[in-house]
Design brief:
The chain is elongated. By secondary structure, the protein is mainly α. The longest helix has 39 residues, at 86-124. The chain is built from 9 helices and no strands. It has one domain (44-255). The chain has helices spanning 2-32, 40-50, 55-77, 86-124, 127-133, 138-176, 181-191, 194-220, 225-255. The protein starts with a helix and ends with a helix.
């Protein structure tokens, strides 16, 4: 029993320590955001890496999510003769929750892991130390462009995710299940408000900061050679995914 409480206590202490270190890294990155030199080229390179290169997996995942959601809601609503609400349900689900969450998780798996692996490799090969020797602040050079790119790109990807999810729901609902296309779209216009879209985009921006910041943090504190890089990359993906889901609940509770 003593060993159990000791293990739980150590885990809680380590979690609090890591959260504190992540916040300190975020505040340091924030302090460097408006200070020259501004590394515009690195920023656009990260926008391409995080955003453009993640476009296909986000579109594909969102399309099939919308299709599955339409299929499930149709069979549920059919019991109440409310099949025409399938479109509104898919649209609200995508814009409020599924769009930003799926985008965040997919980008975490594709880009967040790569960010951690890249910075972690630089750490174990002493390239981060070399930046300091050359009077280049590693936080400004490595962290700021990635966090800023994640903050800006994730809402853009979320808009595409929302559109693809609604399109998938339309294809299944109208073309496969036989719901009237006009009623499908009319219910979307009737029930989906602009605030639902805005709230989803706010969530996406928060998720973009979380996944890039955690990837940078885990990479910065990597140790133990190639094995340490792999361990840090796994931890970064797990931590980012958990924090995205936790922050999604908190933001939902505050917004709706």
């Amino acid at each position: 029993m003593k060993f159990l409480f000791s293990s739980i206590g150590k885990s809680v202490i380590n979690l609090i320590r890591e959260m504190g270190q992540i916040m300190l890294l975020f505040l340091e990155a924030l302090s460097w955001l408006f200070r020259p030199p501004f590394r515009i080229r690195h920023f656009f390179k990260q926008m391409e890496f995080i955003g453009v290169n993640s476009l296909f997996v986000v579109m594909l995942t969102s399309l099939f999510t919308g299709m599955v959601l339409a299929l499930q809601t149709y069979y549920a609503f059919r019991m109440f003769s409310a099949e025409t609400l399938v479109g509104a349900t898919v649209a609200l689900s995508m814009t409020r929750e599924l769009g930003p969450v799926i985008t965040g998780l997919m980008v975490t798996g594709r880009a967040g892991s790569a960010i951690c692996a890249e910075i972690g490799t630089m750490r174990v090969t002493e390239q981060v130390d070399a930046l300091t020797v050359m009077a280049i602040n590693p936080v400004q050079y490595l962290v700021v462009p990635r966090v800023l790119a994640g903050f800006i790109v994730l809402p853009m990807l979320t808009v595409i995710s929302d559109v693809m999810g609604i399109l998938g729901g339309y294809l299944v609902g109208v073309k496969v299940l036989g719901i009237h296309g006009g009623l499908f779209m009319n219910k979307i216009y009737e029930y989906v408000e602009i605030g639902d879209i805005y709230n989803g985009l706010i969530k996406a921006s928060a998720f973009g900061v979380i996944l890039t910041l955690v990837g940078c943090y885990k990479g910065f504190y990597t140790a133990g050679g190639a094995e340490g890089v792999g361990r840090s990359t796994t931890q970064a993906v797990v931590m980012s995914s958990v924090l995205i889901l936790v922050s999604d609940y908190i933001l939902t509770a505050l917004m709706f």
